[in-house]
């Protein structure tokens, strides 16, 4: 019989909840994964415009969850999508944050970069959110709870869910091999 791992995700967005469930199912295949979404404040802008702000948003969300659920969950998880401009141009990416409730360890990870068209980045700098801009450009509805800008710009070869899942799996390395991360 497999043991249960209980996860609280700092969002009710089904993409983020599914990403956490997929990542933990892959990392802990002999366990039953129970994943629940919880609305957690990021404490940053709705559209984070820097790498620092994006990371802070993920960490704020997971710490907000810790105030509520440390005693009833095994892991707390948060994801924050953001954008920034680097030497190569404007990109979107995500930061993930995980708290292992058994030892109160914070693990942080980051996804790969997706280049953004200049016309998209200009609209973001004018205060619009990426999901809404993408919905407008591609005539979609609520893409941020589906494949996201990543899905649209990669012809669904990658999706918002797939990059969150990958980033979470990578961030879990210290939990999988704590003997090497002391």
Automatic annotation (TrEMBL):
Pfam family, one: NTPase_I-T
EC numbers: 3.6.1.73
Catalysis performed (reactions): XTP + H2O = XDP + phosphate + H(+); ITP + H2O = IDP + phosphate + H(+)
Coiled-coil ranges from the UniProt annotation: none
Residue span, Non-canonical purine NTP phosphatase/PRRC1 domain: 10-175
Cofactor: record remark: Binds 1 divalent metal cation per subunit; can use either Mg(2+) or Mn(2+).
GO biological process: nucleotide metabolic process; thiamine metabolic process
UniProt-annotated binding residues for substrate: 11-16
Keywords: Hydrolase, Magnesium, Manganese, Metal-binding, Nucleotide metabolism, Nucleotide-binding
Required cofactor(s): Mg(2+); Mn(2+)
Chain segments annotated as transmembrane: none
Family membership noted in the UniProt record: Belongs to the YjjX NTPase family.
Subunit annotation: Homodimer.
Functional summary from the UniProt entry: Phosphatase that hydrolyzes non-canonical purine nucleotides such as XTP and ITP to their respective diphosphate derivatives. Probably excludes non-canonical purines from DNA/RNA precursor pool, thus preventing their incorporation into DNA/RNA and avoiding chromosomal lesions.
Name of the protein this chain belongs to: Inosine/xanthosine triphosphatase
Protein's organism: Marinomonas ushuaiensis DSM 15871
């Amino acid at each position: 019989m497999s043991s249960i791992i209980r996860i609280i995700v700092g969002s009710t967005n089904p993409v983020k909840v599914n990403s956490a469930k997929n990542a933990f199912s892959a990392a802990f295949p002999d366990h039953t994964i129970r994943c629940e979404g919880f609305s957690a404040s990021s404490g940053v802008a709705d559209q984070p415009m820097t790498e620092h702000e994006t990371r802070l948003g993920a960490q704020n969300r997971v710490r907000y969850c810790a105030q509520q659920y440390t005693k009833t969950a095994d892991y707390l998880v948060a994801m924050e999508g953001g954008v920034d401009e680097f030497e190569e141009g404007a990109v979107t990416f995500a930061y993930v944050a995980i708290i292992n409730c058994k030892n109160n360890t914070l693990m942080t990870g980051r996804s790969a970069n997706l280049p953004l068209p200049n016309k998209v980045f200009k609209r973001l700098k004018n205060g619009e959110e990426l999901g809404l801009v993408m919905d407008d450009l591609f005539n979609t509805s609520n893409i941020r709870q589906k494949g996201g800008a990543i899905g649209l710009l990669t012809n669904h070869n990658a999706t918002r869910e797939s990059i969150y899942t990958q980033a979470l799996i990578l961030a879990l390395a210290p939990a999988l091999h704590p003997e090497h991360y002391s």
